[in-house]
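Teaching assistant here, posting this on the class forum so everyone can see the example we discussed in section. The complex has two components, and the goal was to see what a joint structure prediction looks like when all of them are supplied at once.
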Amino acid sequence: MKKISLPNLILLSVILFFLAGYVGYPLYAIISESIKTPDGISFSAYSKIFDGNVFVALKNSLWLSLITIAGSLLIGLILSATLFFLKIPLKSFFSTLFLIPIATPPIVSVTAFAYLLGEYGLLTGFLKKYFAQSTNFAIDGWPAIILIHLYSFYPYFFLFISNSLKKLDADILDASKILGASKLTTFAKIVIPHISTSVISATIIVFMASMASFSAPFIFGSSERFVTTEIYSAKVNNDYTLAAVLAVMLTTISVFFLAGVRYFDRFEKNYASKGVTKVYNVEMKKRMSIPGFIISIIISVFVLLPVLALAYLSFLPEGSLMRDVLIEKFTFENYINMFTQPELFSPFRNSILMSLVSVLMSLFIGISVAVLVARENIPGKRLVEISSTLPYAIPATVVALAFIISFNTPTIFTGFNVLVGTFWILPLAYAVRNIPIVTQSAIAGMKLINPDLESASRSLGAGRLRTMFKVTAPLLLPTIINASLLVFIASVGEFVATIFLYTYETKTVSVEIYSHMRLYNTGTGASYGMLLFFIVMLIVYISRKTIDRSVRV
Amino acid sequence: MPFVSINNVSKEFESQKVLDSVSLEIVKGEFFSLVGPSGCGKTTLLRIISGLETPTSGKIILDGNDITSIPAEKRNIGIVFQNYALFPHMSVFNNIAYGLKIRKFDKSSIKLKVEEVLRKVKMSHKQYSPVTELSGGEQQRVSLARVIVNEPELVLFDEPLSNLDYALRLETRKEIKVLQQNLGITSIYVTHDQSEALALSDRIAVMNNGVIMQTGKPEEVYNNPVNQFTAEFIGHYNIFSAVEFQHIFGNKSNVGKYYAVLPEKIIPVLDPEGLCTVESVQFNGFFLEVQVQCNNTRVNLLVTQNGGQKLSAGDRVHLALRSNFDFRELSE
């Protein structure tokens, strides 16, 4: 039995209480809901998986994920290879631009696509007016969902493959060439194996995210069934048993793949070669590549068009019917109203407050876990680490459903209050989903800090606490700031859990975007969308600055 | 007829001249070294010979054929890289078989060739190991095997020993030399370590700022440097102006503008009236490294321990040449 100090014991208890209450107990509640029948415990509800509707939903979700993976992998591979191997102008501009969709809250992307290519979309109207009046260009159902998925998920492949390519040793490419390999052989035998682990990791992450995707199927897939939207409709129809069965099924698939990610992460570390990796410019061609430039321009337009449509429509006067693609009168009214009319301001205030609360909660738990796991030798360390990573694999729909089932009655974990319907349930749901972000980056940050620095501080006479505050904390700060910003981004535009859990008083910007779009209040919906977009981009900018500064340290 | 000719090769990167009409001739079977400080252009020249870079002007002739415009993968030239550049996702066997597979050898002859070359570099026991599990020295042997298995016409070495520790470096350098002699492969070896170049090479070329400063056999270059740079870089010569030289040694010679003297060719003699003061004495095993100051001219000496006189910092000495001919006159 390892010894454990009193402060560590207290910290460990707090963490375990939180994880048990807000991860363990809800998961238990949802499983027990799925096997509870009037005649006692039974797995009979699971036979519904093979029922027509549920089976169709499962099949559709799987197909959607596979198509998403294939398409995003193709786009991501082409873009990362283009930016890495070819010589094109505005390279760093493109590499930043291509990542915009990854930061954009899904509800904003989906709404933007609706405003661009939906029934009353800008581009739809434009094409109709100037090209073919009889043809309907509006997209809906599968094509729309796939398009939005490609938009949201190709950046994962782009990011993972680009990062992997940056670690490719230029001498290895030269060695292959010298040994007689053509460019194609080098690509097939050296580059592809080199990026394969990152492709697999990205595939698993995109698969999980795509299976859990809710916004796009919810808004564009009214006539199609998907697992996530089926959970929502089961909940709306008060069929909690079916909802729970679906949720357990979805989570099981997801957890299985999370284990896969962790396996491949470990695998990749073994690949790091010895010796000094020489990374210099491996542009294979000396001349500008025109096809590469054209591809980059096309994807940039694809990335920017929905956002531009959103921006354009945010200047549309409220109540305007948009009979023409051209706005008759531009106005800043929508933006002004958001901040002056209490009813329009409160969702904004809610979103910001909830995100701040969720950042604080996930920071507290995440950093505590990281400190215990990375530096201390405590019993049950693996269990703490795994259970704090687990929420990453639980889709937001499932977290929300589990919270509803768990916290509609008083529990010890909630201080014997009913959480459903309160303000607190929303930031709690966001925090639970985001704890893994903080834990993982804090652990990674701690591992980057040379333990000798702490030893040096101790040997110079500083106590443990002083060392913690004067050495460890300042070095860890950039990592923490960055993780906080990521949690804030994920929370401020969160739609999926919110739509399950909000009440009239706790409406957030994301819910407002959705409801204004449904009510055809285009101007207000679009300006809320732009507001979220701006907040998120501002934070991404700040976070990049933080990283830049921390690199210099 | 030379086996490799480098004819007036120049290279500019963004209008900066890295190589300035370099010409060299290397005969078949020769071990030739390019030695110079980092940034002198030696690696660029190596990359041009291999085809990984194209020269701005000039020609590379290999065995009578102009190969300047032939792409790297079509020249039969091997490179041993500084960081080994082994393919991390392949085993030792597959790394070595890589070039053979591209040349479409059949399976059984690939196996034979790989096994034979592994015996040559004494790595047979690691045939199926992943290369990431090898030590630096072992990785370098595999890297060498991967090159020679293709029987290249020319092998280029790009500072292959600089990532190894001192003892291993000495050992590996002997092995490279033995292997090169046994196989008779023409080799061009790039290094910034002058002792490595002197020990290994049949001939060396000293480079600085993209220009060849001197070419010759190691002992020629060491004993008869023709310019200040070579004298300092290869022999750590002390360089004196004509005035200083006369002042310190009293020699009357009016031919050179500068005079170069090897540290081991100068004898310090204890002399209370001497011109020079001993600044520091460092024990270095066989030699004592002594620094003396003679009227603002610093002179480095290597003195054998049994030189008789005990020197310590602060002693006054005068300097003498071991023999009257132990200096070189330099025109520049």
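For the discussion questions: The first strand of chain B starts at residue 4 and ends at 13. Chain B has nine helices and 18 strands. Think about how each of these relates to the inputs above.
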